[in-house]
Every structure is written in C-alpha cells, then in structure tokens.
Design goal:
binds uridine-diphosphate-2(N-acetylglucosaminyl) butyric acid, Uridine Diphospho-n-acetylenolpyruvylglucosamine Reductase, domain 3, five-stranded antiparallel sheet, four-stranded mixed sheet, 3 domains, Uridine Diphospho-n-acetylenolpyruvylglucosamine Reductase, domain 1, 348 residues, 8 helices
C-alpha cells in the first residue's frame, strides 16, 4: 500500500491537478482494512474518489479528498474445462492493454478489438469500454467487488451489470457502492472475429492477404495500427480519448440534420440505426461540420485527425481551458444541429 499526501493526480490529459491524498492499495484485504474496518479512515481526507489510471476523467480543479487507486495485479486462468472457451481472472489494477496482449499471445479471442485502449481492467468493466464493434460486456463473465454497504465480497454476473453503450449500473445506481477487485472474462479458443466496423476487414486483407486462418494477434496488430493513425498517443499528447458520446437521436431529429446537411452542402450524414429505433450519428461528424477539427484555443485544442478528442495541445493546458472549449463545442453543435452532446469523460 502507498499513501501520498498533496500529490499530482494521475490523469492522461496531463493537467496539473492535485489531491489532498492518494492511496494505492494492493489487495482487497488492504482496502477492506482501511475502509471497512476503519483502521486509517479517520486520517483520510474526505471525500473519497476511486480512479483507474485517470484516462477517462477531467478534473476541473484540485481534489480536496482522497483518491483511491487499485494496484491489484494478476492474470490467472480459472479451472474451467472447455475445448472452446477459457475463463480468466484479472486484477482490477492490471493495465487493460497488458491483458489484451496476454490474451492474444495465448491465442484467445475476445479483447483483440479493444487493444490499446488506455486504462485499467477495473475501470474497463465499470465503463463498458468499446471499440471497433466490440464492447467489454461481450466478454465479462462476472465482476468481483467489495461491497462497501454490506461490507462483503460479492461476485456480480456480467448479465446483471446493466451494460449499455458506455454505461453500467456501477456508473449509475451502484455508484460509490462497489469497488471492483477483479474481473473474470470468458474468452474463446475458436475463431471469434468482429471485423465489420469501418475499415477493419480491408486493413486485415491489405496486411495479411485475407481472413482465413487469422490469429487474435494479427487482428490486434491491425487495430493497434488503426488507432495509432487516428488517436493521439497518451504519452505524447494529453487527452482522455473520445471526449463526447455519440448521440442517439430520434428519426425526426436525424431528418432535420439531413435537411441542414443538404442545404449547406455537407454531404451525406453518416448514421447507424439502433435496435430501439433511434439513430446514432457520429459526434465526430457533427463537431467537424461545426468547424472544430484541428482547432486551437490557447493550450487546449481539438485533435486534427479525430475531432471527438479534446487535447492538451501544448502540455500546459489548465482545466478551465479544456472546460471552456468543451462548452463552446456543445453550444455550437446544439445551435447548428439541435443535438445536445454529452461528455463521455467523467467530469470531477
Ligand atoms: N468522423 C468524421 N470526422 C472525423 C472522424 C470521424 O466525420 O474526423 C465520422 C465518420 O463518419 C466516421 C465516424 O465519425 O465513420 C466514426 O468515426 P470512428 O470510427 O473514428 O469512431 P467514433 O464513433 O468517432 C467511437 C468510440 C471510440 C472508438 C471508435 C472505434 C465513442 C464515444 N468513441 O468513436 O472510442 O475507438 O468508435 O470503435 O463511442 C474512446 O472511447 O475514447 C474511443 C476512442
């Protein structure tokens, strides 16, 4: 366990924000002793805030309480005998992409489309991270948590987690109740691909000459390359990945946007029909058509290859600059297209 006072909060935006206290724990037992049995709790400044690696957070200023961070490691196969599947238990503090790489190296299918997403395993299960046609919910068998209300360990089946697009019960009615200790994933040993998003299939064919006899490692490599071409590397440019969610709108709203696009010569409006009858329009398109792609405002900016990503362009941005830019983008998209963009990142 590591307890640090008055320190910088880890955040991939690279913002200079500080917490009164940062507590990193290495096991469920440690956390339980601290929070449940109350051994140190009186010393910990309040409130408490649980974070992963800070890759989906925007801190609007210093945090007056204690930031908690899991360092629980470990990737272990569960005793589960099936020729076609494996169940793997992964500690909440494992870096998400290390797990993705491990799975691909074993030849296990499931997380390869989610390769190179920044963050850690616990946060991935809370946020239901997704990319290139696959979401974490597709492979979560169950989530092992410390229940702060009942003071017990619980194992919650993936099917009870209320997973939806970047949503889960952990983010809503369960907020603050459960701390993820480990996640069990159900992976497949036989080929299980999802190649129909964007240009994934074409990129695979271009690189490997066809999809016969593919391995998870090959798919992973193509996804890593696609991401590198579109998204800023967190080690070079500060960001929190997609800043906004893709909006799901009503068909009549979509018709209004299509009419605006036709009148203004914006070309066809990209869209995807959802099962519930709503229409998903890429926030990136709406933002680009409002003229923000590559925009710079002081130290904050909009990434030139993917306008869904707000960036700390100089490395010296302040939270206020990012917040001001976010507000301007929301206002302009609402004024031009009548769509209210919702942030995907959590604003603290
Ligand atoms: N688009 C533009 N201009 C651009 C880029 C994209 O108009 O500069 C339009 C295009 O029509 C394109 C569409 O947006 O077809 C979708 O673009 P992309 O495939 O890049 O995906 P996205 O919807 O913008 C989502 C996730 C990403 C994930 C990609 C790939 C959200 C909020 N974001 O972005 O996730 O990597 O799909 O699956 O759902 C993240 O969450 O941090 C993240 C990067």
């Amino acid at each position: 366990m590591k307890l640090t006072y008055n320190c910088t909060i880890p955040n991939t935006f690279g913002l200079p924000v500080h917490a009164a206290c940062l507590l990193e724990y290495d096991s469920a037992a440690e956390l339980r002793a601290l929070l449940v049995d109350g051994r140190f709790s009186a010393e910990l400044p309040l409130p408490l805030l649980h974070i992963g690696s800070g890759s989906n957070l925007l801190f609007t200023g210093d945090f007056p309480g204690t930031v908690l961070h899991s360092r629980i490691g470990g990737i272990e196969e569960m005793p589960f005998h099936d020729e076609k599947q494996a169940v793997v238990r992964v500690g909440s503090g494992v870096v998400w992409d290390q797990f993705c790489l491990w799975a691909a190296q074993q030849g296990y299918w499931g997380p390869e489309n989610l390769a190179a997403i920044p963050g850690e395993v616990g946060a991935a299960a809370v946020q239901n991270i997704g990319a290139y046609g696959r979401e974490v919910k597709d492979i979560v068998e169950c989530v092992e948590c410390l229940d702060l209300q009942e003071l017990t360990m619980v194992t919650i089946p993936g099917s009870d987690c209320g997973y939806g697009y970047r949503e889960s019960r952990f983010k809503n009615e369960w907020k603050g109740r459960y701390v993820v200790i480990a996640v069990q994933f159900r992976l497949r040993k036989d080929e299980w691909t999802e190649l129909d998003y964007g240009h994934v299939r074409q990129a695979l064919i271009a690189r490997y000459g066809g999809d016969i006899g593919l391995s998870p490692m090959e798919v992973r490599q193509v996804i890593v390359d696609i991401r590198a071409g579109k998204l800023p590397s967190p080690t070079e440019i500060g960001s929190a990945g997609s800043f906004f969610r893709n909006p799901f709108i009503l068909p009549e709203q979509y018709a209004r946007i299509a009419a605006i696009a036709e009148k203004d010569g914006l070309g066809p409006v990209p869209h995807f029909m959802n099962e519930d009858g709503t229409v998903k329009v890429p926030a990136a398109w709406l933002i680009e058509k409002c003229g923000w792609k590559g925009y710079r405002d002081g130290n904050a900016g909009v990434y030139e290859k993917q306008p869904l990503v707000l960036i700390n362009a100089t490395g010296r941005a302040t939270p206020d600059e990012i917040v001001a830019l976010k507000d301007k983008i929301i206002d302009s998209v609402r004024t031009r297209f009548g769509v209210l963009l919702r942030p995907e990142v959590e604003i603290i």
